[in-house]
Amino acid sequence: MKTILYKKRKYVLQIMIIIMSSFLLFNVFFYIQVKRSYENRFYEIGNKMTSQTTKALTHWIDDQIKVVKMISREKRIIDACRFPENEEIVHKAQKFLQEMHELYPYYENLPLSIKLEKPIIKNVNGKRIQINNGEFLIDTVGGKTIGKGGIDYSYVREILDGKDYFVSEIYPSILRENPIFVISVPVTYDSEIIGVAIISPQMEYFTKAFVDNVNFENTGYMFLMDSRGLTIAHPNRELILNNSNKVKKIGKEILAKIAKANNYFEGKFLEEEKFYIYTKVDISSENIMNKWYIIFTQTQREVLQNSNKYLNILIVAGIITTAIVVWAIYLVSNINQRELYKEKLEEMNKELEKKVQERTAALKKLATTDSLTQLDNHQTACEKLEKVMEQAIKEELPFVVMMADLDKFKRVNDTYGHQVGDEVLKSTAHVISSNIRDGDIAGRYGGEEFIVILPNTELEEGLKVANRIKDHIEDEVFSIKELKVTVSIGVRKWQGENAIDLVKYADEALYQAKENGRNRIEIR
């Protein structure tokens, strides 16, 4: 009897050991699957963030290339490269670049590099400066970088060697040693390169636009690294272009991981285990000094914290429950976990898409709108003028262009200060916008000069609009009660000429209005 009872107990014990062992093995397998699901979640979120940021960044770079190409095609810039010793011509080019710098204040400098057969001497702020081949003939920082640059700089050398555009390495600026990069294009005349047009976006602006706002949970963030292993954009500004041995070692280790992995890897840097996922920025390697990588990272501890908690719960439950209870818990937990994960992932995807759309819209507005007046900027207004002209040619429609310039605006700034000057510019923009139709176009052409384009409009109607604008500006009341502002306007009805000549004729009418006493309208 005892032997039978012993055998029964033995069998029960064996069954219990088998069941508990099987259950523990099952829990280990289940933990691995949960762990993988959270790793996949990181991969999906990180891949979406880096891919969408890459698209936005590539679009922004394309817009910057368009800006510098527009500068290179400007007649004043070409003339300055052709006649670098003619002070009047060089001054006109410098004034144009200064106006462009005001439109794009996040540029460090807008210098003009000149191709020379032999050195020339230029008087800069009372000093005689020798300018050699490839060095800066003009800048927009008070002459502080004139005579600097040269063919030793990649963005000059590569353009003079025949590249159609070039994106430099990230480096400390000549002026203030803050991190910048340069986009350069050739200035040509009769198919020959005679100079290099240059813009230099500041990395601080770049980092705020593309890195600072991209974060996830507590430890997830994004940064950029180039193929030198240097950090070029990071929420922690101290790491940008940090060349210390410790940071350089980390950069080399990350590059080594990138070289071996597809686009996902793990690593322990700065005493913290992390997951990484990256996307290479799509810029032709022939046109950029160093490859750029957008990298999203999050600590393994945070990514896997829920799976580790879940494992502990399952182990405790396995010790104190039967196989049936554990199986029921597994089924219920698995279903709930999948639904919660699916809902959370959908919410995160919607939020991420919203942020990307908002950031893309902000970047588009920044690239097309004048930040002070909220009118179209110079480049956008010119592009819209071309489109209006194309439609007018196609449908045989009339249209009118007006160039308006505030009279004696410099006196406003000198007397009342730039804050009042900005108020006048914004009020002028509001008056113009309030007196044109929805389909009409208004832009800040530069400084205190504005352009208005009236599609499908005859000259008589255009003059009525110009008079309304002139009268309302003269009647405008400012915070300085005694301040009165007037405007001179040049009006031109399109008569088949190209866009450049059309604006030129309107400008000539504007200057005729100035010559005839200001606060008036002239027709060309």
List keywords for this structure.
single chain; 524 residues; alpha+beta; six-stranded antiparallel sheet; five-stranded antiparallel sheet; 13 helices; elongated
Rg, nearest Å? 32 Å
Give the proportion of residues in helices. Answer: 40-55%
Report mean pLDDT, rounded to a whole number: 87
User: How would you classify the helix and strand content by structural class?
Assistant: alpha+beta
Largest sheet: 6 strands, antiparallel
Tell me what you see in this structure.
The strands form five sheets. Strands 10, 11, 12, 13, 14 and 15 form a six-stranded antiparallel beta sheet that branches. The protein has a five-stranded antiparallel beta sheet with strand order 4-1-9-8-5, with helices on both faces. The chain has helices spanning 2-72, 75-82, 87-103, 154-160, 203-210, 245-260, 300-320, 323-368, 378-395, 409-416, 418-434, 459-475, 499-515; strands spanning 112-114, 120-124, 127-131, 136-138, 166-167, 171-172, 179-180, 183-189, 192-199, 215-216, 220-226, 231-233, 264-269, 272-280, 292-299, 399-406, 441-446, 449-455, 487-493, 521-523. The model is unreliable at 328-333 (pLDDT under 50). With 524 residues, it is an alpha+beta fold. Helix 1 (2-72) runs parallel beside helix 8 and helix 10 (409-416) crosses helix 11. A hairpin with a 2-residue loop joins strand 13 and strand 14.
